[in-house]
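Forgive a beginner's question, but would it be possible to get any protein sequence you like and the tokens describing how it folds?
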Amino acid sequence: MSAVLGDALSLLLFRLHSGRLLGINLLKVQEIIPCPALTKLPNRHPHVRGVATLRGASLIVVDLARAIGERGETDSRDGCLIVTELSRSRQGLQVQSVERIVQCSTRDVRPPPAGSGARAFITGVTQIDGAIVQILDIEKVLHEITPEQPEELDEQLLTDAERKLLRGRRVLVVDDSHVALRQTLATLRKLELDCQAVRSAASALDVLLTQHQAGLPIEVLVSDIEMPEMDGYSLVREIRQRSDIGQTYVLLHTSLDSTMNTEKARSVGANDVLTKFSTVDLSKALLHAFQSLA
């Protein structure tokens, strides 16, 4: 079964030791395994249990309950591991139990409740069979444990002519993740682009329309795929159906493996798709976008 059909979202449901029910996008899950023996690391982050060896490769194991502010597991062999891959990294999340896979519509996923706070570690909530399911913000969890150091932009990456082509061009970024927005905007500012940022697809549509009506249309939209209420695919479809903003160049920027999303992205009308997060790759993708618009 495909994990994305139309605006459908497949979620793997699991529980923590407290009984809290969470979901994670199935496309981010590689496999589920019993908790293996772990090697303790000196000076490890308190939320990292240790390192497992999985088919000859090292795998950092995170006590997910502790990472999101709950009481952690008492035994490193308790529960099971959800092995995830996203944003070019792989890790194991130790949880109490895995329940099942369900499908829901992204339109039924709501943003986190107001007042959830900066440490809520969820990107949205939905209802499955009458139960509230919180969707895990795994990118935020991992960023809290290993904050990414800003990647320096090599001065030799772009020629003077290429930098001149980018300077002052209008870009809109939409992403429901604070972490992803900060990373993306840092790169755009290094390229001296004229950039704006919003947190939802509906807000992105508003900005695109307002800027167009003001005679200063957004030239390139950099959009996340996974967002509550309207995902990146639905946003592209909406844009392409409009005569006023329908020609906007859209780069889908996703924590999922972009090779898995290319066909879907093209089918809805996106111009390009890129896996988060690489300053160099994002810079090249934006250069390609503006070269194609020249």
